[in-house]
């Protein structure tokens, strides 16, 4: 199956609640690559790469969150695939 890459911007209570580490856990579960990073405006940016099915599993997992995460809104766009990427990381 063909890979794709999305850039996701999560808004709400997503910093200081383990969101990036939750994303890492879900990435391992869904077998996707990419990264998650806090932004200065309080949002979290995630880039995720995999098949459509893998990305859907990842995004559904993110929505379940933990009891502290509260996603108010999500912006997403498709971006070019990074063929050499091999894992999902948490950026600081």
Describe it for me?
The chain is α+β, with helices and mostly antiparallel strands and 92 residues long. It has a single domain, classed as Alpha-Beta Plaits, CATH 3.30.70. Helix content is 27%, strand content 40%. A hairpin with a 5-residue loop joins strand 2 and strand 3. The relative contact order is 0.35.
What is the top-level CATH class? Alpha Beta
Q: Shape from CA axes?
A: globular
In CATH terms, what is the fold-level topology? Alpha-Beta Plaits
Strand order, main sheet: write it out. 4-1-3-2-5
Order of helices and strands: EHEEHEE
Number of discrete domains:
1
Mean pLDDT: 97
Biggest beta sheet summary: 5 strands, mixed
Share in helix: 25-40%
Structural class: alpha+beta
Distance between the termini: 32 Å
Task: Please outline what is shown here.
With 92 residues, the protein is an alpha+beta fold.
Q: Which secondary structure elements does this structure contain, and how are they paired or packed?
A:
Elements: E1 4-13, H1 19-30, E2 33-38, E3 44-50, H2 52-64, E4 70-79, E5 88-91
Parallel strand pairs: 2-5
Antiparallel strand pairs: 1-3, 1-4, 2-3
């Amino acid at each position: 199956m063909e890979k794709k890459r999305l850039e996701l911007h999560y808004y709400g209570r997503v910093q200081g609640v383990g969101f990036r580490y939750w994303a890492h856990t879900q990435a391992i579960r869904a077998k996707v690559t990419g990264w998650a990073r806090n932004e200065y405006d309080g949002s979290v940016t995630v880039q995720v790469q995999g098949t459509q099915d893998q990305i859907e599993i990842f995004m559904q997992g993110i929505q379940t969150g933990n009891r502290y995460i509260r996603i108010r809104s999500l912006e997403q766009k498709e971006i070019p695939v990074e063929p050499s990427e091999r894992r999902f990381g948490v950026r600081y």
